[in-house]
Design brief:
Blueprint: E1 2-3, H1 25-36, E2 40-44, H2 55-61, E3 73-76, E4 82-85, E5 94-95, E6 99-105, E7 118-124, E8 127-128, E9 137-144, E10 153-162, E11 165-170, H3 183-186, H4 188-201
Parallel strand pairs: 1-2, 2-11
Antiparallel strand pairs: 3-4, 5-8, 6-7, 6-9, 9-10, 10-11
């Protein structure tokens, strides 16, 4: 399944402002059991930020948009080695300006097999100091934030496990109010990684092909918009 809900209303809940309703307890319980028993979940962009205080969800996601003392963060050295950052060290979660970002993959995970070692993706937000329990977490790819005075390396894609379940998390695919087919969603890399991640989450062989227009470290690859059907007015 793909989880796109961010109930924190611009993360206002961290300041004590609850703008959107939570899922009903019955839905939460069914979601937890689904994952614990082997379900797969793609956590899409700001769904990483959701459900402050729901410990099971925070365990599934591993790293979320939280205050500096909320939990651990994961950074990376220039050599690409993940480093655990203790609660209270550094900042709360944030991101610099969106833009073309160089993403570098670690290892040869099935989701990334056959892709270049690094590629440029447009319209990305690189979250710095995402916080949480950061347990059972494996970083798949990383990027450097665009925050002035910071410019550190952070996870862009990671996976966790929860019981028998698998979870994939990334901040690809930013879509703002009023956006229609933004470049962040027409990126050939994102359009390749999403179906490959879903194959992996389903426990199937990852066979979705890496296309010829997949970007490299020198240029983005943004596909043409999908033609939208005309609205017939009667």
């Amino acid at each position: 399944m793909i989880q796109t809900c961010n109930d924190s209303g611009g993360n206002g809940e961290l300041a004590g402002v609850k703008e959107l309703p939570e899922w009903p307890e019955a839905v939460k319980n069914e979601f937890v059991e689904y994952v614990r028993n082997g379900g797969g979940v793609y956590v899409f962009h700001s769904a990483e930020n959701a459900f402050v205080g729901w410990k099971a969800y925070e365990q599934m996601v591993g790293l979320s948009w939280r205050s500096a003392d909320y939990g651990s963060a994961i950074g990376l050295t220039d050599a690409g080695k993940p480093v655990r950052i203790q609660p209270g060290v550094g900042r709360g979660t944030g991101h610099g300006p969106r833009g073309n970002v160089l993403v570098t993959r670690l290892g040869n995970d099935p989701i990334h097999k056959g892709m270049p070692r690094a590629w440029l993706s447009p319209g990305l937000e690189v979250y710095y100091y995402s916080r949480g329990p950061a347990e059972h977490l494996r970083v798949l790819a990383y990027a450097r934030d665009a925050e002035p005075g910071l410019r550190m390396l952070w996870p862009m894609e990671w996976t966790t496990t929860f019981g028998k379940g698998r979870i994939y998390i990334s901040t690809y695919g930013h879509v703002w109010d009023g956006d229609v087919q933004p470049a962040s969603m027409r990126d050939a890399a994102v359009q390749t990684i999403i179906p490959r991640a879903l194959e992996w989450l389903a426990g199937r062989p990852v066979i979705f092909p890496v296309p010829k227009d997949f970007p490299n470290s020198d240029a983005v690859s943004v596909r043409e918009p999908i033609p939208l059907p005309s609205i017939v007015r009667r």
